[in-house]
Amino acid sequence: MAEDQKNKYLGLYTILPSEISLQLAEVALDLRIHDRIQDKVKEIEQSKTMSQEFSRQIQKVAKDLTTILTKLKAKTDNLVQAKTDQKVLGEELDGCNSKLMELDVAVQNFSEQNGQLAKPLAKKIGKLAEFHQQAVRQAENRLSKLNQAASHLEEYNEMLELILKWIEKAKVLVHGNIVWNSASQLREQYILHQVTLGKIVFKE
């Protein structure tokens, strides 16, 4: 602005008075300072916006982890469905871990220019990482219990199948013709077997 005004005077072959020239220089300086301040304000506003977005993403991951952890702690009597749910929850945990790692890198880059704004974000991410590890341990514990339950169920089914076979055999015996021998007859059969066994041993 000062240069334009000065050129205007020079174009008219008029020498710009020194006092006016000084005032114009001061105005130009003020304008440059004002522009710099405005740029700095915009930069600060952008940094705050980014910080708020990081906070929103951190809260989203925390909410997802809370939901996953609640499902992992839930009890169920459907083993097949529980195994299916376990697989889905494991995939969701992996997704949270990937998002957490991305946030960690992004916040580290953000901290290079915005150290003060990045400090609370880094702290939140640290706590979120601990929360994620808690969910992972819960998932591993649940998977171990599901595997044990599956093993016990298999043993139970095998035992049940054997018992059912015994029951069927018992039914056949109950409905069949059974010849009951008296005690004396059983004793005679025992002696006969003993004698027969003795003869066999003697021949050998």
UniProtKB/TrEMBL annotation:
<protein>
    <recommendedName>
        <fullName>Nesprin-1</fullName>
    </recommendedName>
</protein>
<feature type="coiled-coil region">
    <location>
        <begin position="129"/>
        <end position="156"/>
    </location>
</feature>
<keyword id="KW-0175">Coiled coil</keyword>
<keyword id="KW-0677">Repeat</keyword>
<keyword id="KW-0597">Phosphoprotein</keyword>
<keyword id="KW-0472">Membrane</keyword>
